[in-house]
UniProtKB/TrEMBL annotation:
Aminotransferase class I/classII large domain sequence ranges: 27-375
Transferase found in the keyword field: yes
UniProt name for this protein: Methionine aminotransferase
NCBIfam families per UniProt: PRK09082.1, PRK12414.1
GO molecular function, one term: methionine-oxo-acid transaminase activity
Transmembrane segments: none
Lineage: Bacteria, Pseudomonadati, Bacteroidota, Flavobacteriia, Flavobacteriales
CC cofactor: pyridoxal 5'-phosphate
Organism: Winogradskyella marina
Matching InterPro entries: Aminotransferase_I/II_large, Kynurenine-oxoglutarate_AT, PyrdxlP-dep_Trfase, PyrdxlP-dep_Trfase_major, PyrdxlP-dep_Trfase_small
Amino acid sequence: MNFKSKLPNTSTSIFTVMSALAKQHNAINLSQGFPDFPSSKKLNDLVANAMNTGYNQYAPMAGNLDLRLAIAHKYELLYKSHYHPEKEITVTAGATQAIYTIISAFVNKNDEVIIFKPAYDSYQPAIEINGGKPIAVQLEAPNYKVNWDEVASKISSKTKMIIINSPHNPSGTIWSKEDMLQLQKLTNGTNIIVLSDEVYEHIVFDDAQHQSVCLFQDLKQRSFITASFGKTFHNTGWKIGYCCAPDYLMSEFRKVHQFNVFSVHHPSQKGIADYMQDSETYLGLNAFFQQKRDLFLKLISESRFKFQPSKGTYFQVLDYSEVTDEYDVDFAKRLTKEFKMASIPLSVFNDNGKDDKVLRFCFAKTDETLLQAAEIVNRI
């Protein structure tokens, strides 16, 4: 059959490649961002209880109402920001589905979407498959700070959307209040929609504060927030996320969502709603993951790798420029095959494959796994 691919230049995700390589060579997998420890038994029991008490048919299209109420309460508690649980919150099949649906709902042919690279790999294909044009702003290692003059120069009459991500995957950096104010200033008085990927909002270190778009009133009125329970509650395989937005934006989102997914796993939604009645289930994450970051960095402090401590997420970027001058993809594959440790090369997320000689390592692992990984890092 003859057909024209909508994504002719898209290959298998680097996450799939590296995880498969890790399995093939029996390597420690610090590549794909998932924990190697279980989700809470209490949460698992609450989901099982939801199954046993009848939550086994379709959830409402927008999501289980108890869960939407719990999400709304969280925003009031953390940010003093209100989202209407019936009109402004929708539960999704993970944050990636939310991101794809937002782009599908608003991006038309030849619309431009600004993305900051290194960028999570779902953004660009979603833009392209909807006929849009990604406009890259390359962030420079090792600080990955935004050059706002460059951003301003890339905004045009065709700019439909700006996608931001803080805490930032893959660099582990966070946006400051000043960054958010600059974004608010640049988009004020425009028709630009902001898609704020905030899946790591509860994983911010060293007493820093997550700067959500909902803290900035002008930004909030033009923005979607996407979030992930998989990242928050250590169960990425459940694929439960959500998004929040003003009702005039959310109503357009739901037009696409209802024909894309309609609704997601009902007992998981009910179990998470019950679990979230205790706010400590998400408030304690910063300290939990900072202990893991600090342990990993202490263990590799005498290695040949250079680093700036991650500011957020559960990823640490390591600079290997004093180890080898190999292309980062080649070095990552060699580490997996020869040293039995998998990581993620950052060039695949950069504009034109820019190679800064850095790899991303996931530290959402047991202390035992981190000890084993550090031993490998130290002998490279």
